[in-house]
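User: Good morning. I'm curious how S-adenosylmethionine would be positioned relative to this chain. Could you predict the structure with it bound?
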Amino acid sequence: MAQSSQPEGLDEIRRDFAERVAGRTRPRDARVIAAFAKVPRERFLGPGPWLIRSADGYLRTPDANPIHIYRDILVALEPLQRINNGQPSLHAAAIANLRLKDGETALHVGAGTGYYTAILAEVIGTAGRVHGYEIEPRLAALAKANLAERDNVTLHDEADPLTLPQADAIYVSAGAGGPQPRWLHALNPMGRLIFPLTGDDGSGVMLLVRRTDDPQVFEARCLGPVQFIPLVGGHDDIASPHIAAAWTDGRLARVRTLIAGRPVEPSSRLLEGDGWWLSSQAMAPKAAPLPE
Ligand SMILES: C[S@@+](CC[C@H](N)C(=O)[O-])C[C@H]1O[C@@H](n2cnc3c(N)ncnc32)[C@H](O)[C@@H]1O
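Assistant: Good morning! Here's the predicted structure, ligand included:
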């Protein structure tokens, strides 16, 4: 929607929205709040009226006035596939926890039509770069068009490449049964990965992972419960069936370390996957600890 045709007061509504969805996160990041205040959500949702996710399915907004989408709600992108533009407060908290710095490189896996890719691009600034990946061709084409004016974003044609560019941060917006080896390999030293660790029913936790000096050892923390549609190719035959139970019985809240490539001792083992393990033991004493 052209700036001139937007409803009166929409900039202020967007600023209020940004404070509500991003202003209460820990850490509170002024750049994340500013990004939500600046990026027009309606440009990434197609023409209204829009379908808002509700407990029983979707509700249609009464008209195409964008004020309806500046709430902490999910909006349909592909309703038949249950692909939605995700909940703003959840993504605001996750992006704040990536602790992005100006000029860094970030990957966004599961870009949809690009709204949260644009938020990442705002936070990282014009000296940084965001690489976006989206596997659904119609959404990928929309993301490419929606992000075309952003010089610091590359939306890749290959949605799920085996090798990824090296990155300071990786943000995954679809649920995986474990950390993909290519994500861990792509992380720069002290690089951060946030992904939804979800099981067969789509429930699980947002997991924050940070690389240490040891390429097999990553600090890890659970950021809270989530529900996500699955990442295509993200099922883990060993871990996926056990993730929901590992959340409900409290194991995932105790995660301190992710080990890839060698097992952790049984006494601290919380969850086992295909070539990776979650441990309750902190194993990277030299690094600054991740915040609780
Ligand atoms: C929960 S939706 C979120 C979309 C977007 N982040 C948003 O909130 O507007 C997850 C997205 O991940 C995409 N996706 C699933 N598996 C993928 C994969 N292996 N590589 C890239 N994208 C994938 C889906 O097509 C979908 O668009």
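The CA atoms of residues 46 and 66 lie 11 Å apart. The two ends are 41 Å apart (CA to CA).
Let me know if you'd like a different ligand tried.
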